[in-house]
Design goal:
The complex is a heterotrimer. By secondary structure, chain A is an alpha+beta fold. Chain A has 2 domains: 123 residues; 143 residues, OB fold (Dihydrolipoamide Acetyltransferase, E2P) (Beta Barrel), CATH 2.40.50. Chain A contains 10 helices and 15 strands. In chain A, the strands form 4 sheets. In chain A, strands 7-8-9-15-14-11 form a 6-stranded antiparallel sheet. A 4-stranded parallel sheet of chain A has the order 2-1-3-4, with helices on both faces. The longest helix of chain A is centred in the middle third of the chain and has 20 residues. Chain A starts with a strand and ends with a helix. Chain B is an alpha/beta fold. Helices cover 48% and strands 17% of the residues of chain B. In chain B, strands 2-1-3-4 form a 4-stranded parallel sheet, with helices on both faces. The mean pLDDT of chain B is 91. Chain C is 28% helix and 14% strand. The longest helix of chain C has 17 residues. The mean pLDDT of chain C is 89. Chains in contact: A-B, A-C.
Chain lengths: 285, 127, 97
């Protein structure tokens, strides 16, 4: 069950995606103990909504890339735990939205899918409403060279830089780590040096490093933000990075500073896959 | 630049009267007077973006508010729009008395009747 | 081994390479042993025994060799300036179709 959310949708008057944003927000608040924030009334009734927004986990829903709801949340300096943009959700799920304010079959399907996903995350998240729940299993595409298999998660939300590091973004949080290319080229990882919790890291700044008998490799952060958690399990078992650098081998969790800006210099799975293949082919050790 | 009359409903999230305001406006701009009227999203107006301010500055608007907070009327004025007519859903609700207009997401028959009556009034003011 | 582009930008348009401070360098050659990209070259019989031979082989934003340097003789450009520069070049490229 999705509970204890404050839901801030865009007003969604004149576009299909907006109508979906609204409908999703209302459904969330009709069926569970969530509270809706009216994006217009918030401007005049700040005190009332500030309380709701601060005490609960804030979910911001935008219909389209005009991002009216996100802008409002930023202006009010609210801490957003989860952000949804309907047009992107539709694209990620290959759902084509009609150009109509009356919701049809596809639009309702999308709403149900997002509701189900929120519900999943909410259930696992019950104890701590402040934390974002990161899924721990992903789908992979693979590239094989000799006996080595290089995996790459293809789930939406994964971004890469050309320094062989990944970020998995949910709302204003991201987990970061290294890719299979780093892990395989280092072979057995012996030490893990985490970044400091609370440290502010720039995009392409160093966010810890890993070391094997062969070399030390820095994690060059794909995103900018503040370190809010590190994967403590790695201190005892750095080999988790070798087992799976995307799942149990993640390195740190960041509260994002400006992901829209960072995104300009990041690439998706398909593009990084090509780069990784080239690197693997050139790597003759 | 479009010369169409801008009709702006309140956001109306969470209450049936808000939903009535929205539906009435959409009926006017899509069905009754598509040539002469258009709507602007109030959620966008309140962001105060340069583009939306240019769009509103000095333009004649009809606002439709679901409750006495008058969010639509107030915010259109703040954005520089000229409120030519303030429509209040409650005025028409008083004319069509009912125990059940519907909910924030779905209108019942009496709610629909209020929507139609308000839409007709607005259309009359545009023509 | 060298990358020809980084983030779609030609590598030689991006200024990213180590600079050796010869006042500090003691020619321990740890950086040479470390770097797999052949950025450095050793010149045994010359007065200056270590040079940055292939700056464009250097992986943009990688600073790992400086960690191996005991006397702290290696420095890199400002990361944020480099990021900005890459963004600018990408914008220009978009502008040119």
């Amino acid at each position: 069950m999705v509970e204890n959310y404050a839901v801030l949708p865009c007003n969604g008057l004149d576009k299909c995606a907006g109508a979906i944003s609204r409908e999703l927000a209302i459904k969330l608040c009709e069926s569970a103990k969530n509270e809706i924030i009216c994006p217009v009334f918030y401007r005049v009734a700040e005190a009332k909504y500030n309380k709701i927004a601060c005490e609960r986990t804030l979910l911001v829903i935008d219909g389209c890339p005009t991002r009216c709801a996100s802008k409002l949340a930023a202006e009010k300096k609210l801490k957003t735990s989860r952000k949804i943009t309907i047009t992107e959700e539709a694209k990620n799920r290959n759902i084509e939205l009609a150009n109509n304010l009356r919701l049809g079959e596809n639009e309702n399907k999308l709403i149900d899918m997002i509701l189900a996903e929120l519900s999943d995350a909410g259930g696992k998240n019950a104890q701590s409403s402040d934390k974002v729940q990161f899924p721990n299993e992903f789908e992979y595409i693979t590239y094989q060279k000799d006996k080595f298999i290089f995996r790459l998660p293809k789930n939406a939300g994964f971004f890469f830089n050309e320094n062989d590091c990944w970020a998995y973004v949910i709302g204003n949080r991201a987990r970061i780590g290294v890719t299979d290319f780093v892990q395989k080229s280092l072979s057995d990882i012996l030490y893990f040096f985490p970044p400091d919790i609370g440290a502010k890291i720039d995009q392409f700044g160093e966010a810890g490093s890993v070391e094997s008998a062969k070399a030390v490799v820095e994690l060059i952060s794909p995103v900018s933000g503040k370190v809010v958690a590190i994967n403590e399990a790695l201190e005892q078992k750095p080999e988790l990075i070798n087992e799976n650098p995307y799942e149990s081998g993640w390195i740190a969790e960041l509260e994002l500073a400006d992901f829209e800006e960072d995104k300009q210099l990041l690439i998706g799975c398909d593009k990084y896959f090509e780069i990784m293949k080239k690197k693997v082919d050139e790597f003759n050790v | 630049m479009s010369k169409k009359m801008k009709i702006v409903p309140c956001s109306g999230i969470g209450k049936v009267y808000g939903l009535i305001a929205r539906e009435a406006v959409l009926k006017v701009v899509h069905e009754l007077c598509p040539e002469k009227s258009e709507t602007v999203c109030l959620g966008y107006i309140v962001t105060g973006d340069k583009e939306v301010k240019e769009k509103m500055e000095g333009r004649e608007c009809i606002t439709v508010d679901g409750c006495p907070k008058m969010c639509a009327s107030k915010n259109v004025s703040i954005a520089g729009g000229v409120v030519k007519e303030e429509v209040k859903v409650m005025d028409t609700v008083k004319e069509i008395k009912s125990k059940n207009y519907g909910t924030a997401t779905r209108l019942e028959a009496d709610g629909e009747a209020v929507v139609n009556a308000i839409a007709a009034k607005i259309a009359g003011k545009i023509a | 081994m060298s990358e020809t582009t980084f983030m779609g930008v030609e590598r030689d348009k991006i200024d990213w390479k180590p600079t050796i401070d010869y006042k500090k360098c003691d020619y321990c050659m740890e950086c040479v042993k470390f770097c797999p990209h052949k950025v450095f070259e050793v010149k045994e019989n010359e007065e200056i025994k270590l040079i940055v031979k292939n700056p464009n082989n250097c992986v943009v934003f990688c600073r790992a060799c400086s960690k191996t340097c005991g006397p702290d003789a290696l420095s890199f450009p400002d990361k944020n300036e480099t990021t900005q520069k890459i963004k600018e070049i990408r914008k220009e490229m978009e502008g040119n179709g």
